[in-house]
């Protein structure tokens, strides 16, 4: 191996491993009699960089090695191999001076496999292992003193001291079955340290441990405080897991129950069609659908209607014009689950097998309908006019599809309405007064008003014009102009399709200008 002072051989140092450089330092220290840090300071930057990288790797593995071994930190740098034996006081002075001289890695911790580099024969390997054992024993003896875990002879459990002052440690000794533990000679008193020195080291070690414990406690407290603040700052997420049922139904069901009061307020307003449109925009998505099934009383005949979001404002407004004054929704035992839709976004599904809807009309009639409900809601990214984030912690959800099936309906009359009619008849009549006058029923045999039925029938018949409605609203066009542009678009798309059928070789995909308005909106 070349001289470290020769700069022409710098590339050779960068190609060597940490074990090879460490072996060279030990040989140089034995040959010249210089200390380990002095030889280390003569190395070129390339060699010191290799040793520093090895030291960093050992520092990362140090916690695992401490947990698996005797839980005793390694000191660096180590004294040179082959140095004469010294007492614990001399070792302490030498190691303290070495620590102030340089921050080199510990030789005992980095000399992993000396045969791996191929520069030692079997005899040199045996000599190196013997030197390593002696050096490691001196290191463990010093570490035992500074850690404050000292016996009277300066050793720890699992260590023994020879007459020359060398400490050996091979872990706990387990006797063979049937054998007796060897009798050790009585240890030398104090092991080279006076009682004052031992007490000073113990007190210093206890102070360091207490300071380290207080620092770790403060750090843990700070981390816990930061975690609590982060959890408080993050809003509650409605979609906790995919296909995970929620038994209490506390998110989507609460959103559906909040429909009663706003809808009742809208029904009390005059000329409130614009407000009804805003209400539907806040509640339903642009692609929402409402599917309702009514059961005729006495015959069990079913009528099913499905309308889109464009016809929903007209449907609610028709119910208002028919005399509906309030609507109350009750969900008994709803269940919720989060599912993944085909477009990759989570959908909150609310199912209720016992649904009750109570409609109150202005003439005092009360219609109670029972059935089942299934609703799919998706989360929106921005607040709307009907959602007050400051007053409600619920996530902003909109209905994507709503399916309601009414299985029965019953009608009743409020007593207050009967009393008012009776008093008026008694006051204005000349003959015998009638006891009760029942107001005319606003609903038919299906439990819904005729205006609502006609509105749903018309909306279902023109449901195929849903794309036209979206196109006109998005482009802000009139009915005739929007219909003309949509027809031109379909003619152009049909022309492109016919060219593809004839055999256009490069027609792989539909051009962007020939895509449907729904596809362009998705883009």
How do you describe this structure in short?
With 523 residues, the chain is α+β, with helices and mostly antiparallel strands.
Q: Key features?
A:
523 residues; alpha+beta; two-stranded antiparallel ribbon; Nuclear Transport Factor 2, Chain: A; LIM-bd/SEUSS; 17 helices; 10 strands; 3 domains
What does this protein structure show overall?
This protein is α+β, with helices and mostly antiparallel strands and 523 residues long. The protein folds into three domains: 7-170 and 189-193, no CATH class; 245-461, Nuclear Transport Factor 2, Chain: A (Roll), CATH 3.10.450; 475-522. The protein has 17 helices and ten strands. Strands 3, 4, 5, 6, 7, 8, 9 and 10 form an eight-stranded mixed beta sheet that branches. A two-stranded antiparallel ribbon has the order 1-2. Helix 11 packs across helix 12, helix 12 (312-321) runs antiparallel to helix 14 and helix 15 (466-475) crosses helix 16. The longest helix has 39 residues, at 195-233. Residues 4-11, 68-118, 138-190, 233-249, 383-394 and 502-514 have low confidence and may be disordered.
């Amino acid at each position: 191996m070349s001289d470290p002072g020769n700069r022409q051989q710098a590339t050779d140092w960068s190609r060597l491993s940490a074990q090879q450089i460490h072996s060279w330092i030990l040989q140089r220290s034995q040959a010249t009699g210089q200390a380990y840090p002095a030889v280390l300071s003569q190395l070129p930057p390339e060699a010191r960089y290799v040793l520093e990288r090895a030291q960093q790797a050992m520092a990362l593995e140090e916690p695992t090695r401490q947990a698996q071994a005797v839980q005793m930190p390694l000191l660096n740098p180590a004294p040179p191999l082959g140095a004469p034996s010294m007492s614990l006081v001399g070792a302490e002075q030498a190691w303290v001076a070495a620590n102030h001289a340089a921050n080199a890695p510990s030789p005992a911790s980095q000399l992993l496999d000396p045969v791996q580099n191929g520069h030692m024969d079997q005899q040199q390997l045996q000599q190196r292992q013997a030197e390593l054992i002696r050096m490691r024993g001196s290191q463990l003896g010093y570490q035992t003193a500074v850690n404050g875990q000292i016996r009277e002879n300066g050793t720890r459990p699992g260590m023994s001291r020879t007459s020359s002052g060398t400490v050996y440690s091979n872990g706990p000794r387990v006797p063979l079955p049937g054998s007796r533990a060897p009798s050790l000679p009585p240890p030398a008193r104090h092991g080279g340290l006076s009682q004052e020195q031992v007490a000073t080291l113990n007190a210093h070690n206890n102070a360091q441990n207490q300071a380290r414990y207080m620092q770790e406690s403060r750090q843990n407290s700070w981390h816990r405080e930061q975690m609590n603040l982060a959890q408080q700052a993050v809003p509650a997420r409605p979609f906790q897991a995919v296909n995970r049922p929620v038994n209490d139904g506390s998110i989507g069901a609460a959103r559906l129950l909040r429909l009663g009061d706003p809808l009742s307020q809208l029904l009390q307003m005059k000329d409130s069609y614009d407000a009804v449109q805003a209400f539907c925009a806040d509640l339903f998505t642009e692609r929402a659908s409402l599917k309702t099934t009514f059961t005729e009383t006495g015959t069990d005949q079913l009528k099913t209607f499905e309308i889109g979001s464009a016809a929903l404002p007209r449907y609610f407004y028709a119910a208002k014009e028919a005399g509906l004054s309030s609507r109350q929704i009750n969900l008994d035992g709803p269940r919720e689950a989060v599912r993944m839709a085909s477009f990759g976004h989570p959908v909150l599904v609310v199912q209720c097998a016992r649904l009750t809807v109570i409609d109150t009309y202005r003439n005092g009639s009360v219609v109670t309908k029972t059935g089942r409900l299934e609703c799919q809601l998706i989360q929106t990214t921005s607040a709307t006019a009907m959602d007050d984030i400051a007053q409600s912690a619920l996530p902003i959800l909109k209905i994507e599809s709503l399916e309601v099936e009414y299985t029965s309906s019953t009608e009743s009359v409020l007593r207050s309405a009967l009393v008012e009619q009776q008093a008026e008849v008694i006051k204005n009549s000349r003959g015998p007064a009638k006891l009760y006058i029942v107001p005319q029923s606003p609903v038919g045999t299906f439990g819904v008003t005729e205006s609502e039925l006609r509105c749903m029938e018309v909306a279902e018949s023109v449901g195929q014009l849903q794309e036209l409605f979206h196109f006109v609203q998005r482009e802000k066009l009139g009915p005739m102009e929007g219909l003309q542009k949509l027809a031109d678009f379909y003619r152009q798309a049909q022309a492109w399709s016919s060219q593809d059928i004839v055999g256009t070789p490069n027609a792989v995909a539909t051009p962007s200008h020939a895509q449907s308005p729904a596809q362009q909106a998705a883009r």
